[in-house]
Design a protein that fits this description.
Blueprint: H1 2-10, H2 41-53
Length: 54
């Protein structure tokens, strides 16, 4: 619907194509993650933001 509106109003054309690209896989290391949790006020704010998304 939006595409047809843009095409009609602004004479835009849209095309789709499939492109194969390399990607990186994010995996946990053999002995677990080596990331520390944030400390202080930011940790509480981040926790609240994560909970509100679900």
């Amino acid at each position: 619907m939006e595409q047809s509106l843009l095409a009609d109003r602004f004479k835009l054309k849209v095309h789709f194509e499939t492109v194969e690209m390399p990607v990186y896989g994010l995996v946990i290391a053999k002995y677990g993650a080596k990331l520390d949790r944030p400390r202080g006020r930011k940790q509480r704010a981040l926790g609240r933001a994560a909970r509100s998304r679900h």
